[in-house]
Amino acid sequence: SQWCCVGINIYFCVSLQGGVNDEVSLTAYIIIALLEIPLPVTHSVVRNALFCLETAADGKEIHVYTKALMAYAFALARKEEKRKALLGSLEKEAVKKDGSVHWQRPGKEPEVDLPYYRYRAPSAEVEMTAYVLLAHLTAQPAPSQEELAFAALIAKWISGQQNPNGGFSSTQ
Asked: How deeply is 116 buried, as exposed, middle or buried, from its count of CB atoms within 10 A (0-12, 13-18, 19+)?
């Protein structure tokens, strides 16, 4: 079993178990927040947490939502190789439809096309798709033309999820 330590001043340890792993997602959330402050990648908390994510990224089964978070965390940390590897894996799981791209939870029932009804995805799917978009746009030194074109397809889907007031299904 692998161990992951995260914290701001106090470290706590949790086991990484693969699959849908809240500990890995929490680690990614914390790294994202710290790097957006911006705390340097050389800070011990960030460095240790990134090591945990790198270890988790080498695992066999990672939930699509966790991959999206990790890809953005690695983008912020300027770890291009890890970012690209996760984005490549995510692209294989993408739902490409009507000239747009998005991600959905595994095992979810396909959306039904009904007349006069516009399907809007659950907030978690909008959120994970937005993290993938951020990971594409946070490439260092800058996103390639290919990444920008793919990002435009993602942005198209996200904008299609807006309600008539311009918001989304939740405030998340």
From this structure: exposed
Question: Can you give the pLDDT at residue 30?
Answer: 92
Identify whether 171 is part of a domain. Answer: no
Residue 67 · residue 89 · CB < 8 Å: yes
In a 13 Å sphere around the CA of 99, the CA atoms on its Cβ side amount to 4
Does 168 reside within a domain?
A: no
Whether residue 104 is contained in a domain is answered as yes
- DSSP annotation of 108 reads P
Considering the entire predicted model, what is its pTM?
A: 0.84
Say which DSSP state 139 is in.
Answer: -
Neighbours of 167 (CB within 10 A): 10
Question: Domains in the chain: how many in total?
Answer: 1
Which of 49, 52, 41, 44 lies closest to 80 in space, CA to CA? 41
Q: Residue 10 sits in which domain range?
A: 3-161
Query: Is 149 inside a domain boundary?
Result: yes
Of the pLDDT bands very low, low, confident and very high (cuts 50, 70, 90), residue 88 is very high
CATH code for the domain in which residue 39 is found = 1.50.10.20
pLDDT in tens, 96-133: 999 999 999 887 665 655 555 567 788 889 999 999 99
